[in-house]
Description:
Elements: H1 4-12, H2 19-27, E1 30-34, H3 43-56, E2 61-65, H4 71-80, E3 87-90, H5 96-100, E4 105-108, H6 117-124, E5 129-132, H7 138-141, E6 147-150, H8 155-166
Parallel strand pairs: 1-2, 1-4, 2-3, 4-5, 5-6
Helix pairs in contact: 3-4, 3-8
Amino acid sequence: IINIKEVQKSRKNEVKINDNLHKIISNKKFFLSIGRFTKQKNFLFYLNCIPEILKLDPELYFLFIGQGEDKEKFLEISNKLNISDKIFIIDHTENVHYFMKKASALVLPSLWEDPGFVLVEAGYNNCQVLSSNCPNGPSEIVSDDGGYLFESNSKLSLINTISFFLK
Length: 167
């Protein structure tokens, strides 16, 4: 499933990102989410939860890696919620491992997965996972010591899971 030699080599490689994001990645706590901005990945739901998450820890940042048809709507909502200074988006990277090794956790709010390869990558990188308990992947991959599952599409469950994780 994972080409270990390639992953080990890529984890050591720096990724070209702007200075502001580099400072965040290097010095701050951030949650990482990877996937297309689509209904399946449920990033709009997660985005609407971020103001509540920031009440738990105002120092958190949120990095999203992906593109997709909901990206513009995502950016509009982040501006309306007045949290755009806490959100960073990278359209694409060849090296998700670089970000996984630095992230506080990978957050996967998907409505379904098939089976969720990003969860396998997170596990390999010892990146904690906060995932919806959606069909086809998370409960089979995320174990008690590798992450936390929350009820799919439930703001209360997500907030409670993040609160537990942060403690």
